[in-house]
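Run log, item B.
One chain of 658 residues. Sequence copied directly from the ordering sheet:
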Amino acid sequence: MDGNPTTAPTPTGGRRAPRKRDARTDGGYILVTLGLMIIPLMAFAALAVDVGSWYARTTELQKAADSAALAGVIWAPDYARARTVAAATLTDNSFTATSAASQTNGNITITMTAGTAPNSFKVCITDAKAPTFFSKVFTNNPVGLTRCATALYYLPVPMGSPLAYFGGDASKYGASNPQTTTTNGSGSDHFPPANVTGNPSITYTSTLTKNSNGDYKCIVDPAYVAQVGWKYFTGTTTPTGTNTKPTGMPVPNPTCVWNWTSVTTTTTYPQPITYTSPGFWANVMGPESDAVNGDAHSPRCYGGNLCGGSPANNDYRSSGYTYTLTVPTTGAPSSIAFQVFDAGLYPRSSQTVETGDSIDNNSAGSQSNFTTDFQMYNADSTPLDMTDNAPMTAAQCSGTAGDQAANSGHWRLAVNDASATFKNNWVTLCTISSPTPGAVYLMRVKTDHDIDGTTQGSGSNRYALQAVGSGGSGSGLQLSAYTDMEIYNNIGGGTATFYLADVGQQYAGKTLDVNLWDPGDVGTGVTGRITVVSPDTSGNTMPCDWSSSYGVGYSGAPTGGNGFGGTPSAPSSSGSASVANCTVESATSGSSHFNGLWLHIRAHIPGGYTCSDVGGALPGCWWKINYNFFNSAGGAVSVTDNTTWATNVEGDPIHLTQ
């Protein structure tokens, strides 16, 4: 060997093995990198912890605000009470509060105010110093958190009338219904007659003209015409002089023989409202009537009269029907007379005569009897709960007694009771002095046997209602049915349109349920159609579908469909309907499709629904129902029909909007 180092063998493939790096060269790099990263990592960790804390705190604030708004809104528009209830709810949720509209307790500020929409209530909670943990290392500025909740409730939509009256026939009772008495007599007296004394401070002039018989007559001042009328003198000799009445007795004049007629007109039962006939009477049936005849709730019987003691009609309710009298918030009258026309049941010779009251016989074959009960209830601060309103007292209500204490706002009338007072007359049930602006007063009507002393009562009592205001602007009163109404349609011309329900723009995108009990009964050969008419001013189409059912607890009813025409068991399949033809055929050629059935019409309100509810101009947002009846030749026919209507908008009436 030559002494030179031996060359290391080359690895397979001719490549040299990689040389290892010295680990000492990376140590400083890792330390520097870690030092640079630790600060942002800690900041992110701090932010994550604090953001989570803030999120949890805002959840607490929101839950408390939601609960307080929902608890308080049911008392709107009594916002003082709404705040009291909301404050108690906040305290229960660990936020100490009083009924003040705005308050600060430490770092917590609470405001409770009316919302911008009617019957809405807004609660806001601000925590000016939300808890912080790591983030305070980077900033000393406090973190403020605010959460608000607005709750809103919708009352049941008013039904039947947007005005100050409900039911009635304006062709007979539109202007007034005075009571008139006429007295005739004769005698001898001076000219002018000494019995025309009047008020001594009044000066009047008498003149003489000939009547059609050539006799002379005395004309007194117009103020006295209604009191003593015309005085006719015998003979053709003209009495002389024109006489001016001095204070005291008249100046003596030639004595003459005269005949006189005294006409005294009183308006004990005034009807100052001039209105267009609504096309129906309000109606309530006796407790042993048959519900299949059109009243879904007052009769105990289903499928026959005089059913006995056990209610066979599962839709029966003893409370009858409720009407609401709403006072305007501005221009409220100083007093309101709530009046009823033809309050008692006074059987007519036909259902087309006047109100058309009718009575059936009892099981012994004689006329049955029952009591119709009218009662006024005071307004209160819970408009969502109509069961807790207190009856009006004599101190709150003056009116005409009807088998009850005077001024009680409560009548109980058996069949043919007090006809001289009530039959075909407007009579005041209650005069409300100084009504509260925006208040809602109630009147309930029901039938029972409280005073008639019988156990069987079948028949129909038809009546009308009106509210007459004195003082104020004289407008804005609204008298409507609450949730449902029982009416008697007396359609003389084959077609009629009725106000159904007030559905405001806030219900856009929702569904209006129209439920009609036993609608559209007809005679032989008659076809009937019922159309739901929307006031939508935007030209939107309105899809409708319908179904039918028996009353509560009954089964086997046809299911209906979404078409128009045909029978419930075989609905047409013509598809959705527009506003113009949301129509159901209630009868075909004399065959009634919904006798003893509920007809359910679901009107799907478009999302772009608008209506002109400005200045009280009608129709405003009032939907209507059109009845159309015709014979096989297409000619209009007269129809009488008892039916019960109910409406509601689907969805929760109390809900959060924010």
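Observations after the first pass:
- Residues 377 and 391 are 4 Å apart (CA to CA).
- The helical segments are 27-73, 79-92, 170-173, 222-228, 419-422.
Flagged for discussion on Thursday.
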